[in-house]
């Protein structure tokens, strides 16, 4: 074969094979894109439609495309969607997505993440429960449809930013399967399997798939950073007038959540903080992983950082469709989700401080401070120390949802009407402490004492085995939602080429909850000792311990809102179309907003839903070799409540209005007789605050954490029909850490590359991420303002992961 004779230098291979006409007329086996002109979408539409006929901004990814991109997380896959600004630095889960410049505290607050048209969980932005905590991309996914804005608010709740719908595989008459084994430079071992086929030909079909994975983490934790897996199965019976389907999913996975680390900013450059590897270092390390502290109410509270984010998810659901005759049909989807999640993470409480500064801030005057290692007792003199929040959260969540939909088809279109009912509950318990460590990766726990006092003196020690604040915060809260929504959607074909769409949704939703009021106490009279000899009066670590009481606050909040959308799509010819859409939607207050409002005796602002208006127009061109979408948009948002949680457990409690205008670009080309493929997506926008009520001087500032420009470009070369290579480049523009626009997060670009070879039914692949080891900051730390020290600016921020390479073997059968 020609491939064996070629140099690994790709340009030589391209030049030689460019003239291979016999090959050039065939589509490569490893091509990443099926013709978009034939693709049909269902998300945000009442009935399946060809993309060119849908008056929505929607991106699609088939299983084959997802396989070739081999995203390291669900968030990494969503980076390929224009209009979605995605922060991927949290690790495999716990990442943030912002749709069309809509600001939030993070998570998936203004979009809904779905599996097969129903939510992964009804609210994707509960505290410490980002939607991607409960979903994993594996080989059982058939395709992804990502809708921005548009009709999202008609077909789902709290989703004015869009819908992200992962559609799972179903079996067919032909038995098919795939098995994949993957390893990496960071200790990864992962196995994916998916099987599907017919139990009764043309009638009864099955599909079962899942994965199991363990790895050490790209950032060096000293323990297994990710370990666990998922299994998903469905059974579908097809009859003359419809079908019935049942399915089950089990997810039991444990992931380390990576949080801000110290960096040095010098103008537009970001450099490593001394002693801290920016690409591979983390405070989430084995040496500080265990917490075991007495409680003011008796007993001990124990936690293991190695458990990380650990959701146990069980999902059971059913789907039923029936043709009622006379052009009427009914579709019913139902699902029950139960989640038990233990969440443990290290959240820096501010930035590094010099040894003297931290001691002084803790009541030790002058130089009478002494640090020692908890592990050995050895006295040390660190240049910088770091206080870290050891945050433990337990959440029990469940969600029962049913979507009943009737459709009627007529000559010129169809009308759909439905009733959506969802009940969900979130019961959570928080227990937070602060610990003291060296300001380094692979941190060591520190004790701090005042040498001007004796070991028996009150306040001699500022720590208890490295803990500076023992259980300084406890929360026991419960939030429930009962959603009762009616919706209708009309598609009308004025002519063969001109179609109109209108939709409306009425939401009659009830929210209620309670939380336990707390008091403070200490261990001075508990009879316990810090070291077998000295009582707790000798340390300040227990001086402000939180104690749950028996006094509860009960609250409720009702939502009566109407969302609507109108749109038109004009198909100029089979390959060209233009459309326009106006939509109005809303987002109910989130879980932290309820707690913040009802726990505040004198709230600054009334509690309101967030309302949005969006206008978008678009041009779409789809052919077998070239796709392009250009979508200008304009959006406004009112009554946004910022709810970042600070290191002391309080909420940010800032309110704002915003407006944004921009353009989304998406393109794909297959050039030079299928040798070169090029995919591109990008967003140019200008999101600004309008009416930032807490500080009018910030009027017109750029929305925090939002880049004005971000894009991905990925060329691929089919060197032979079997051999393919690609390069990808992600660019994330300059942003501001906060509303004041004082702290700048510099722009950065991340390069990935990979190669695959198809040998019959076996595919060999190598995929590299951040191959040039770029230090790229996706977000600053809302809990930590920048620090001036020794002529440098120290910031706390979350950089992307360092360079990593994965290798995989996939068998299709």
Can you describe what's shown?
By secondary structure, the protein is mostly beta strands. The chain has a single domain, classed as Beta Barrel (Maltoporin, Chain A). The protein is 6% helix and 55% strand. It has a 22-stranded antiparallel barrel. Strand 35 and strand 36 form a beta hairpin. The radius of gyration is 28 Å and the shape is globular. It is a multi-pass membrane protein. This is Outer membrane receptor proteins, mostly Fe transport.
Determine the structural class based on helices, strands and strand pairing: mainly beta
- Overall geometry comes to globular
- The portion of residues forming beta strands comes to over 45%
CATH class (first level) name: Mainly Beta
Query: Number of folding domains?
Result: 1
Helix count, DSSP H or I runs of 4 or more residues = 8
Number of strands: 47
The percent range for helix content is: under 10%
Name given to the CATH homologous superfamily = TonB-dependent receptor, beta-barrel domain
Keywords:
globular; five-stranded mixed beta sheet; 813 residues
């Amino acid at each position: 074969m020609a491939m064996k004779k070629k140099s690994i230098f790709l340009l030589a291979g391209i030049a030689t094979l460019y003239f291979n006409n016999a090959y050039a007329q065939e589509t490569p086996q490893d091509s990443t894109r099926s013709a978009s002109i034939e693709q049909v979408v269902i998300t945000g539409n009442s009935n399946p439609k060809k993309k060119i006929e849908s008056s929505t901004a929607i991106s699609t990814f088939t299983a084959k495309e997802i396989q070739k991109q081999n995203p390291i997380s669900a968030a990494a896959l969503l980076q390929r969607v224009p209009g979605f600004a995605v922060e991927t630095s949290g690790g495999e889960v716990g990442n943030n997505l912002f749709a069309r410049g809509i600001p939030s505290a993070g998570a998936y607050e203004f979009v809904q993440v779905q599996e097969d048209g129903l939510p992964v969980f009804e609210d994707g932005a509960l505290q410490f429960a980002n939607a991607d905590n409960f979903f994993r991309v594996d080989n059982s996914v058939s395709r992804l449809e990502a809708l921005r804005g548009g009709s999202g608010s008609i077909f789902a709740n709290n989703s004015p930013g869009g819908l992200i719908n992962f559609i799972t595989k179903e079996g067919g008459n032909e038995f098919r399967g795939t098995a994949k084994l993957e390893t990496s430079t960071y200790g990864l071992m992962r196995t994916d399997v998916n099987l599907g086929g017919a139990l009764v030909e043309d009638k009864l079909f099955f599909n079962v798939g899942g994965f199991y994975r363990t790895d050490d983490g790209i950032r060096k934790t000293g323990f297994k950073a990710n370990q666990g897996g998922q299994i998903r199965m469905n059974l579908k019976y097809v009859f003359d007038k419809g079908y019935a389907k049942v399915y089950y999913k089990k997810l039991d996975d444990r992931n380390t959540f990576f949080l801000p680390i110290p960096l040095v900013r010098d103008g537009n450059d970001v450099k490593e903080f001394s002693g801290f590897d920016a690409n591979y270092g983390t405070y989430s390390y084995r040496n500080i992983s265990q917490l075991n502290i007495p409680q003011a109410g008796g007993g001990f509270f124990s936690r293991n950082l190695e458990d990380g984010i650990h959701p146990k998810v069980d999902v059971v659901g059913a789907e039923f469709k029936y043709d009622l005759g006379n052009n009427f049909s009914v579709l019913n989807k139902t699902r029950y989700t139960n989640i038990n999640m233990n969440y443990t993470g290290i959240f820096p409480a501010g930035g590094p401080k010099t040894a003297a500064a931290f001691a002084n801030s803790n009541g030790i005057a002058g130089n009478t401070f002494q640090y020692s290692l908890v592990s050995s007792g050895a006295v040390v003199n660190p240049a910088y120390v770091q206080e870290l929040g050891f945050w433990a959260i337990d959440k029990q969540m469940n969600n029962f949802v049913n979507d009943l939909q009737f459709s009627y088809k007529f000559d010129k279109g169809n009308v759909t009407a439905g009733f959506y009912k969802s009940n969900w509950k979130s019961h959570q318990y928080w227990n937070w402490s602060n610990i003291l460590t060296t300001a380094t990766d692979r941190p060591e726990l520190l004790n701090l004492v005042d040498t001007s006092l004796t070991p028996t003196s009150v306040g001699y020690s500022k720590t208890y085995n490295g803990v500076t604040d023992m259980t300084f915060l406890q929360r026991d809260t419960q939030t429930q939602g009962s959603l009762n929504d009616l919706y209708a959607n009309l598609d009308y074909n004025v002519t063969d080429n001109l179609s109109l769409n209108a939709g409306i949704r009425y939401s009659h939703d009830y929210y209620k909850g309670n939380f336990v009021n707390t008091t403070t106490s200490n261990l001075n009279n508990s009879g316990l000792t810090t070291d077998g000899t000295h009582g707790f009066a000798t340390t300040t670590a227990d001086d402000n311990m939180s104690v749950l009481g028996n006094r509860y606050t009960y609250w409720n909040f009702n939502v009566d809102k109407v969302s609507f959308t109108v749109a038109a799509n004009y198909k100029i010819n089979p390959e060209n179309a233009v459309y326009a859409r106006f939509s109005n939607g809303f987002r109910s207050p989130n879980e932290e907003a309820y707690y913040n409002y009802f726990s505040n005796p004198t709230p600054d602002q009334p509690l309101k839903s967030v309302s949005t208006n969006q206008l978008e127009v678009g041009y779409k061109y789809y052919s077998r070799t070239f796709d392009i979408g250009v979508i200008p948009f304009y959006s406004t948002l009112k009554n946004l409540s910022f709810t970042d949680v600070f290191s002391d457990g309080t909420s940010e409690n800032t309110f704002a209005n915003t407006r944004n205008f921009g353009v989304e670009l998406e393109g794909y080309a297959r050039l030079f007789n299928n040798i070169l493929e090029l995919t591109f997506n990008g967003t140019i926008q200008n999101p600004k605050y309008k009416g930032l009520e807490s500080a009018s001087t910030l009027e017109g500032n750029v929305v925090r954490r939002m880049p004005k420009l971000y894009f991905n470009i990925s060329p691929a070369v089919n060197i032979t029909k079997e051999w393919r290579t690609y390069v990808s480049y992600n660019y994330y523009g300059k942003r501001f850490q906060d509303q004041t626009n004082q702290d700048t997060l510099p722009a950065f670009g991340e390069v990935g590359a990979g190669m695959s070879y198809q040998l019959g039914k076996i595919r060999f692949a190598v995929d590299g991420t951040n191959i040039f080891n770029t230090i790229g900051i996706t977000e600053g730390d809302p809990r930590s303002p920048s620090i001036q020290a020794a002529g440098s600016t120290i910031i706390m921020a979350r950089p992307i992961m360092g360079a990593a390479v994965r290798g995989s073997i996939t068998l299709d059968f």
